[in-house]
From TrEMBL:
HAMAP family: UPF0597. One of its GO terms (molecular function) is L-cysteine desulfhydrase activity. This is UPF0597 protein LFUMFP_100015. Residues 186-423 form the Serine dehydratase-like alpha subunit domain. Belongs to the UPF0597 family. It comes from Latilactobacillus fuchuensis. GO terms for biological process: L-cysteine catabolic process to pyruvate. It comes from the Bacteria.
């Protein structure tokens, strides 16, 4: 019973709608909350300070509804058009007449963005000044966790600051469970308690359709379905083509500035897309019932949360790969296979691409989403034939849980030097 409650709480907290890449959205959220407490008057200055991982993930990604990237755009959008009560959907509804004002403010020289001298994986600090007031918002630990808000030097909100690498109670709880418990919950939970997971299918497939219908980002999803125009492609799209195309198209749309929400996972829209869309495509292919779809999405997202529980909230490990492990489990279930097959599929993924590096959010994320999805497809294909990478290889262990823990060690300890190296290249461009 306690484990079921933990799983429901993690799904409710970790699988949420988010409009736009969550790092610039966190800046927009902080700016919107600043604006709520400011006195009336023209904005004279916006100062943005963020941890290096937030900077890395915000430099190239498009802000939805605006069509331009960067923290200056994100901060100006939150300040002038954000809904401070909407969480990660803070800029989901931008009035058209606000867009010229946002761009004017962003490029006026009044908005600055710098790396904060902090060790946090996720840290956002936004200060906004008018002629008569000065408000500053501090976020750490998660994208919408405001631990302090100051107006004119007085603390309006004052909570304990999360430790630099703090682990939440929910995340700590997931570190104590096993993949067998995750599988059993998804199979046995009362349907009404997990029915809300169907919204992931609705939101992320809508995003995929938008990516296929419009020219967002790299248009990778579109290109994967245009076999006739591709000399490398032959014949009509097969199931693997459709899985990769729809998943990449959803990422194209999200990273390309589509004004649509993604259902996120572990604070990431691309992780949510990768956990959702392959499962949705296969569910349609096998003509799954609503219950099968809901249980498959529950299994996929909860598995992704379980794997990510051993990783930092932001790191050099591209966690679309861990989200793809969730999709592998969900697809094994939809194809009529069991827990042991899902274990083999996840182990195969662990032996394939655990070192895929996150080099910041942007249109190239669609490529990484496609890479993770391709790995997932190949790994499931091997698993359903009874083939698994042996435990003598790399990160693959005899135990599925030890394998997952090993991925966490790689992402937490092994890739520490990668982030500053990537950021050095990005900042020098």
């Amino acid at each position: 019973m306690l484990t079921s409650k933990l799983f429901i709480q993690n799904l409710q907290a970790g699988v949420k709608p988010a409009t736009g890449c969550t790092e610039p959205i966190a800046v927009a959220f902080a700016a919107a909350n600043c604006r709520v407490h400011l006195d009336e008057g023209e904005i004279e200055k916006i100062e943005v300070l963020v941890s290096s991982n937030v900077m890395k993930n915000a430099m190239a990604v498009m802000v939805p509804g605006i069509g331009e990237p960067g923290l200056q755009i994100a901060a100006a959008t939150g300040a002038l058009a954000g809904d401070a009560t909407a969480g990660l959907d803070v800029i989901a509804n931008i009035a058209t007449d606000k867009i010229p004002l946002i761009k004017t403010l962003a490029y006026s020289g009044k908005v600055t963005a710098k790396i904060a001298p902090v060790e946090d994986d996720l840290y956002v600090e936004v200060g906004i000044q008018t002629a008569t007031s000065d408000v500053r918002v501090y976020i750490a630990g998660s994208h919408t966790n405001i631990y302090r808000l100051e107006k004119d030097g007085q603390r309006v909100i004052d909570h304990e600051r999360p430790a630099s690498h703090a682990v939440s109670d929910l995340k700590n709880g997931m570190q104590q469970v096993t993949f067998q418990q995750v599988w059993d919950f998804a199979m046995q939970a009362p349907l009404e308690s997990i029915a809300f997971m169907q919204e992931a299918d609705i939101l992320n497939m809508t995003l995929a359709e938008a990516g296929l219908a419009n020219d967002y980002g790299l248009k990778l999803g579109q290109s994967l379905l245009k076999n006739a125009a591709n000399p490398l492609g032959q014949g009509p799209a097969d199931l693997q083509d459709n899985i990769m195309a729809y998943t990449a198209a959803a990422s194209d749309a999200r990273m390309g500035g589509a004004p649509l929400p993604a259902m996120s996972n572990s604070g990431s829209g691309n992780q949510g897309i990768t956990a959702t869309v392959p499962v949705s495509v296969v569910a349609r292919h096998v003509e799954a019932t609503d219950e099968q779809l809901i249980r498959a999405q529950t299994l996929s997202h909860l598995t992704a949360i379980y794997v990510h529980a051993f990783l930092p909230v932001l790191s050099a490990f591209c966690a679309t790969d861990s989200a793809g492990m969730g999709a592998a489990a969900g697809i094994c279930y939809l194809l009529g296979h069991d827990y042991d097959t899902a274990c083999m599929a996840i182990k195969n993924m662990a032996g394939d691409a655990p070192g895929m590096i996150c080099d910041g959010a942007g249109c190239s994320c669609a490529m990484k989403v496609a890479t993770s999805t391709s790995s997932m497809y190949r790994s499931v294909n091997l698993a359903i034939q009874g083939i698994v990478i042996p435990a003598t290889n790399g990160l693959v262990c005899e135990s599925i849980d030890d394998t997952i823990h090993g991925i966490g060690i790689l992402g937490t300890k092994g890739l520490k030097a990668a982030d500053p190296a990537v950021l050095e290249v990005m900042m020098a461009k």
